[in-house]
Design a protein that fits this description.
The chain has helices spanning 95-103, 113-122, 128-133, 139-145; strands spanning 17-21, 24-30, 34-38, 43-50, 53-56, 63-65, 67-70, 76-79, 84-90, 108-111. The chain is α+β, with helices and mostly antiparallel strands and 146 residues long.
Length: 146
């Protein structure tokens, strides 16, 4: 697998980890390949923990960056480009979803690296035991608000 070695601090996520709750879910994993055009009613936030991501909407050029927000019901294609990523889906009718919808002007927004510092620092240490103990479903979304 990409990035797999005993010294790789991200090796725990070579097998994707899912964290589900009512109104959303968080997926941590490494991915390859392009996801063909699709849409979903949830708002999608994706942060690359190593590398960059790429996204495009129909009839547009691919854009890349360390983080991406996709609004609800927006048609798009996605390429994780082999990066380890944290992908958060937020129900658009939830409190957090309403806030995100009102706060993000673009249908697809690239998140600048400097805005991601608080989000990444809100993630627990990169080991399976710490992730199981991480219980606050809003911690990640709240960190991205600042």
């Amino acid at each position: 697998m990409v990035g797999e070695s005993k010294d790789d601090p991200y090796r725990w996520f070579n097998v994707p980890r899912w964290y589900l709750w009512e109104g959303g879910f968080l997926l941590i994993g490494r991915a390859q390949g392009i996801v063909p055009p699709h849409s979903h009613h949830a708002i999608q936030i994706v942060i690359a923990l190593d590398g960059t991501l790429a996204i495009c909407s129909p009839n547009e050029e691919w854009r890349q960056g360390p983080g991406i927000i996709v609004g609800a019901d927006v048609m798009h294609s996605f390429d994780a480009r082999g990066a380890l990523g944290a992908m958060l889906f937020v129900e658009s009718e939830s409190t957090e979803g309403a806030w995100l919808s009102a706060s993000v002007a673009q249908k697809i927004a690239i998140i600048p690296a400097e805005r991601l510092v608080s989000c990444v620092s809100a993630l627990p240490p990169l080991s399976t035991g710490h992730w199981r103990a991480w219980k606050s479903r809003n911690l990640f979304a709240n960190a991205c608000r600042s």
